[in-house]
Structures are given as structure tokens and as C-alpha cells.
Amino acid sequence: MKKITLYSFLLLCLLSCNKNTENIESQSKTKTEESSIKNLNIQMNSFTEIDSTGILIFPLQMGQNKRDDGSYSYKKMPDNAYWNIIFLNSNTNEYHLLTEKKILILDYDYKYNAEEGINISKKTDHIFYDVRSLDYNNDKLINEKDPVYLFVSDRFGNNFRPISPANYSLNTWKYIQSSNKVIMTVTKDSNRDKLFDDKDEILTFEIVLDQSETPKEVFQTELKDKLKKLYDRDWKRIK
């Protein structure tokens, strides 16, 4: 009986020690994270009003202080990219983030990619974004090697969603007012080398805003095959 009691006591001591060790490690980890977070500086260098709606957008960058050894606590973001946007309704002082997912915003456009001098502000129901959101080559980074997608939201920064085809990289896009379509050219990783370069095929897609929003290829296989035959006929491959 005494042996059982002794074993029970030792077991309790061991469990208690393990719990204390876990608490100490947890507290140490928390302090390290808090110290690292304190080295971050939220940077709202500029903001823009969406037409005359009173809706303001604040693109977010993040600065950080160097460690004593010259290194940084966080991975460096690509230059000229934003990791999120704050939307502020200046009429009500309500605000929210565009998304809580990990993304890189390369550009945003609420003028529908219109040429200078063309005013379609009366149609500003959407904001468009060039975004990197997928680690396509599985290198645990989101950078210039990963595809660019076209995203859209309403002018309040709600219903943020992709509208370009998955696993294609966006090249150009334009809003066509008369048909309420977005026409875009995208690069397909044709040779499956996890790169988007001049060795790959460039295709044209379209979507109709606020409908199914499923991107569809504009030029069908029949036409593409014809183009290849004509090119091969008129511009023979060098042997």
C-alpha cells in the first residue's frame, strides 16, 4: 500500500513538473512574440477617396526595426506591395480590413482601367486588385515567381473575391462598359515548370460582373488551331 502511495506521489510530482515546464516555455514563447511584434511599425503612407463617396482606402505596409545583429524578425515583403487595405467610411467612422487572408496586393484600381480622359465614375461599383495569393511553386514564399490574380470587391471593400482563372497569371485586363464584361489576358503554365514566362501560352478570358463570374475563354480551340497552322505555314520553323 505504501509503495502505491509513493508511486502516486512521484507521478503527481512528475506531472506537476511537466506542467510547470510547459507553462514556462509557453510564457517564454509569448514574451518573444510580444517583443517581436513591438518591433513592427504600421505604415499608412497614403490614402485615397473613392470618387466622392466618403469611402477612404488605406493601403498597408509594415516596417520593422532591425535586430542587433542586423537581421529582421519577419520575412521581407517585396517592394511596392501591400499586405492589406483598411476601408474607412468617413461618414460613419466605420472601418474594416479588406481580408484576413495572406495576400500581396500589387495594385488596385477603381477607375476600371479606363484611359485618361474617359470618365466612367458613375459606374464605380467595384474596385479591382492585382493580387498574389498562392504559393504556386511551393517554396513557402509568395513573391514574383507566383501567379498574379485579378480580384474584385464592391466599393466598400466587401465581397472580396478572385475573378481570373485559377493557376493562370494575369497580364492585362480592361473593363468593357457596354457589355459589363472584364476582358483579361493570362499566362498558362503550359510546360508545367512552375514558371510563368515567354515559353508559356497566353490566353484571353472574359467574365460578366455580378453574374456567374466564372471566367470563360474567349477564343475557342478551333480558332487557336487555325492560328497555329497559319503561323506554321507562313513562318516555317528553322531546321
UniProtKB/TrEMBL annotation:
- What name appears for this protein in its UniProt entry? Uncharacterized protein
| Superkingdom field | Bacteria
